[in-house]
Structure formats: structure tokens, C-alpha cells
């Protein structure tokens, strides 16, 4: 981990970076925005400054300057700050506001290209105005491309196309250039380099969709149908979710009609947990005639989640196919051909988040540890080696998503 900079070093940073003129922010508003992330779970010291880069060279100069110091300061790239445990924060260091690059693009913007071999791809950017969309993206769309690719990204398309990190043709990355770095930064939590450009796979944007909800009270039937549906050819999107007394259907993520809420709430009262399966088929005028032809439970869902009385939020169950993930990345997947990613999108008020963070999260992690689920698992050694190779002074993103500093 990069060493924390004393206050004297703060002034050194500002003076040496004076050639950035207005691109360095040290005012209270800039520091306050860069001192927190979406989760607000990690109380870290403020950064010394915020860089608003106008070019990739601005970021490269910052990284080089810190690297050449005897006591380098930490650097964290920030997109939307939608991480929950400090990945985009740099205590006593410099936060790089990556969205500033868009403001200085001088019209370069998005470039959409069609290739007879690769198909459609883009340097992104917004793509829908070109009639195209990424083949795999996240459910929550208000994110940056670099932020998604540094974490992995999952959604209801992942079973079919793989995660976003499996659909990248090329990238520009600071700190190095080689094929191992390409696989290191994809899902690497910002630890090995800063993604400044990405070329991702696109497909024609759907014009219409058929969206179906199916409700279950039996987890075995729910999971059996999920696994069957992802094994057949035809569906474009599949996502599971849970409804409990403290995670009702009328949450911010709901796609149900309000007229359905009373009936679903009644089922929750009777059964305790209701499982929902959402399936989507894309179609257009030429294929509309075919659209109607498309055909962890006890340990966490029933024993842990119902104990928390606060209103939490959506709980998603994503079925995954292992061969859609690239094993050269540090993202860890189970050995099973079909596995599940569980999304607990919890939220709470300012005064009642402690039980979620301190009790429920820890209990779930203890359960995972007990049954042999380890973060990074056998890939931890690969993670260590890549960190030593690409960021030997441990400058980049000094805090990971588990709220602890990286120390080796």
C-alpha cells in the first residue's frame, strides 16, 4: 500500500503539479466529493487533491511523478464512485476524475466501426443513437465503462454472452503494455492500471422485447427452471430475484405493475419467501411471430436475510455458465459448469446501516468461509504476482472492496 502523505507532502504535490493549472482541484467541494463513494461504508482520510485530466498524458504524468518519489502518494481512478468500499478513494493522495476526459474529448467521442470478422465494435461512449448496444452490460447503467471493466459486471445477459469483461477487444491502460496486463485489469479492482479507453463488442439494439415474470415458492423448482432456460437457445435475458417481508416487490428496481403488489405481498405473507424469474426475448417486426415460442438457498436466504428488519432492497439471483468467463482473469468462478451470482442490493437510512454492515454482511461471509468459498481462492497468488509486476510501489487504489488495505 502507498504510504500516507504527511501535510508537507501535500504542498509538494500541489506545487509540482502546478503545470496542470486549473486541472487540479483542492477546494472543499472537490475534496468532499472525492472523499466518499456510493456505499459510504469506509471512513477514510480525505485525498490531498483531485485531478481533472484533459488527456491521457495528464494521468500518465501524475502516475510517473508519484512513482518516482521516495514515498509515493496513492492514486485512485474515479468514474461514478459507485463502488461501496473505497476502490475509488485515495487517502492523502490524488483522486483522478475520469469523466473529465469526456469534457476534453474535442469531438473525438464515440467511434462505431463494422468489421466483416469482428462485427460491430465501438470506442464507447453512448451507442444507442447508432442503433447498437453492448452485448453484455450491467443492470444499473449509470456507470462508466472503465469502472465496470475494473470490477467485472454481471446482468441477465451474462449467461448468454458472458460478463462485460469477456467482451472487450482492446484497451488503453496506464501502467504498462502487454497481454498479461490486459487480463489483469479486467476485473482487477483498479489494482494493476488505469483504463483510459476500451473497445467493446456491440450488437444491434433490440427494438422490442417480450418480458415475462414467473413466481415460485419452491427454490428447487425456481433454480431448476433457471438452469433449464439458460441451456436452451432463444432467450436474451434471464434474472432471478427474491421477495421477503423486508424486501417487498415495490422496490426501486421493481418492474411489476402496482396492481400486482397486493397479490405478491399476500404470497410473501403465506410462504415467507417468493422467488421471481424474469425472462426476456428481443424481437422486431420480422421476428414477432416467433416470440411466443420461447419456453445458496437455506444458508443465506432463509436463515440470515429474514433476521434483518430494516427495509433492504432488491435481491437478485443470476445463473451463470462457467465457460463464458475467461480464466486468465483474476475473477474467481466456482468449478461447477452452472453457478449463481447473488446480488444483495441493500440500502438503509443513515442511522440503521450498522446492522447490515456489521451483522448481516459478516454473517454471510462467515457462512461462505464455512462452506469453503474464498475471495480470490487459488488465484490470490496470481493477484500478488501481478500487483508486484504492474504496481510494485502499490500506488493504485490502495483500498479494495473488502474495506482493508492491500498489503503483501
Q: Topology of this protein?
A:
Elements: H1 7-16, E1 24-25, H2 28-33, E2 49-51, H3 56-67, E3 75-78, E4 94-97, H4 100-103, E5 111-115, E6 119-123, E7 132-134, H5 145-151, H6 158-161, E8 168-174, H7 179-185, E9 194-204, E10 208-216, H8 219-231, E11 237-243, H9 261-271, E12 274-283, H10 297-302, E13 315-321, E14 338-344, H11 354-370, H12 380-390
Determine the N-to-C terminus distance.
Answer: 8 Å
Q: What is the number of strand segments?
A: 14
User: Class by helix and strand content?
Assistant: alpha+beta
Low-confidence stretches are 293-305, 401-408
Total helices: the number is 12
Shape: globular
Helix content: 25-40%
Please describe the structure with a list of short key phrases separated by commas or semicolons.
408 residues, alpha+beta, 12 helices, 14 strands, globular, disordered C terminus
Question: What does this molecule look like?
Answer:
There is one protein chain. The protein is α+β, with helices and mostly antiparallel strands and about 400 residues long. It has helices spanning about 5-15, 30-35, 55-65, 100-105, 145-150, 160, 180-185, 220-230, 260-270, 295-300, 355-370, 380-390, and strands spanning about 25, 50, 75-80, 95, 110-115, 120-125, 130-135, 170-175, 195-205, 210-215, 235-245, 275-285, 315-320, 340-345. The strands form three sheets. Strands 5, 6, 7, 8 and 9 form a five-stranded antiparallel sheet that branches. The chain is globular.
Amino acid at each position: 500500500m502507498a504510504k500516507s502523505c504527511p501535510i508537507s507532502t501535500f504542498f509538494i504535490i500541489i506545487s509540482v503539479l502546478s503545470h496542470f493549472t486549473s486541472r487540479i482541484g483542492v477546494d472543499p467541494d472537490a475534496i468532499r466529493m472525492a472523499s466518499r463513494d456510493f456505499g459510504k461504508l469506509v471512513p477514510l482520510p480525505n485525498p490531498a487533491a483531485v485531478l481533472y485530466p484533459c488527456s491521457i498524458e495528464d494521468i500518465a504524468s501524475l502516475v510517473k511523478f508519484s512513482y518516482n518519489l521516495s514515498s509515493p502518494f496513492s492514486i485512485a481512478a474515479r468514474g461514478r464512485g459507485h463502488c461501496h468500499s473505497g476502490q475509488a478513494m485515495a487517502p492523502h493522495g490524488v483522486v483522478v476524475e475520469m469523466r473529465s476526459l469526456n469534457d476534453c474529448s474535442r469531438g473525438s467521442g464515440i467511434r462505431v466501426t463494422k468489421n466483416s470478422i469482428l462485427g460491430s465494435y465501438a470506442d464507447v461512449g453512448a451507442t444507442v443513437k447508432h442503433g447498437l448496444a453492448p452485448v453484455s452490460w450491467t443492470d444499473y447503467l449509470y456507470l462508466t465503462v472503465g469502472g465496470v471493466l475494473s470490477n467485472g459486471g454481471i446482468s441477465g445477459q451474462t449467461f448468454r454472452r458472458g460478463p462485460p469483461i469477456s467482451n472487450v477487444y482492446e484497451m488503453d491502460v496506464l501502467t504498462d503494455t502487454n497481454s498479461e496486463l490486459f487480463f489483469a485489469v479486467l476485473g482487477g479492482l483498479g489494482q494493476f492500471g488505469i483504463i483510459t479507453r476500451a473497445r467493446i463488442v456491440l450488437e444491434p439494439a433490440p427494438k422490442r422485447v417480450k418480458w415475462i415474470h414467473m413466481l415460485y415458492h419452491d427454490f428447487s423448482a425456481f433454480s431448476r427452471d433457471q438452469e433449464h432456460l439458460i441451456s436452451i437457445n432463444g432467450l436474451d435475458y434471464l434474472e432471478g430475484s427474491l421477495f421477503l417481508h423486508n424486501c417487498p416487490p415495490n422496490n426501486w428496481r421493481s418492474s411489476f405493475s402496482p396492481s400486482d403488489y397486493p397479490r405478491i405481498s399476500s404470497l410473501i405473507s403465506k410462504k415467507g419467501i417468493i422467488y421471481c424469474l424474469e425472462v426476456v426475448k428481443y424481437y422486431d417486426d420480422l421476428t414477432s411471430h416467433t416470440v411466443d415460442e420461447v419456453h445458496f438457498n437455506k444458508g443465506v436466504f432463509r436463515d440470515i436475510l429474514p433476521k434483518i428488519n430494516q427495509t433492504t432492497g432488491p435481491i437478485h439471483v443470476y445463473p451463470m455458465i462457467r465457460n463464458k468467463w475467461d480464466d486468465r482473469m483474476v475473477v474467481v468462478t466456482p468449478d461447477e459448469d452452472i453457478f449463481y451470482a447473488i446480488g444483495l442490493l441493500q440500502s438503509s437510512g443513515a442511522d440503521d446501516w450498522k446492522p447490515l454492515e456489521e451483522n448481516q454482511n459478516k454473517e454471510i461471509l462467515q457462512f461462505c468461509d464455512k462452506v469453503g468459498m474464498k475471495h480470490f481462492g487459488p488465484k490470490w497468488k496470481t493477484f500478488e504476482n501481478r500487483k508486484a509486476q504492474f504496481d510494485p510501489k502499490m500506488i493504485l487504489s490502495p483500498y479494495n472492496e473488502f474495506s482493508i488495505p492491500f498489503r503483501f
